[in-house]
Design a protein that fits this description.
Blueprint: H1 13-17, H2 21-37, H3 43-46, H4 48-63
Helix pairs in contact: 2-4
């Protein structure tokens, strides 16, 4: 069994979840600040939500399936055969 290595260009769910921690933290922090400014909550009491979001995203990264995963060191399968060099046109003198 191979160990998992994240790849930015891979379409599998686990690789897609790897880039979501930063945006999730930014949204969570923004919502907590909004609630604090609207006096619906106090930040010193709601900050554990940040830890909950971190744990949730990390859990989702770990349990997400790797179906269709492409290793970053795998060669891209764009060309099935090597391209031939173009041949020069034949010139005839009459």
């Amino acid at each position: 069994m191979q160990s998992y290595v994240s790849n930015r260009t891979c379409p599998c769910p686990r690789c897609k979840w790897n880039g979501l921690l930063g945006p999730a933290m930014l949204v969570t922090f923004g919502v907590l600040m909004l609630l604090d400014n609207l006096h619906w909550g106090q930040f010193h009491r709601t900050w554990p939500a940040i830890l909950i979001v971190i744990g949730t995203v990390k859990l989702l990264q770990t349990v997400a399936p790797t179906a269709g995963h492409r290793s970053p060191d795998a060669a891209p399968a764009l060309a099935a055969e090597p391209l031939a060099a173009p041949s020069a046109p034949e010139v005839t003198h009459e």
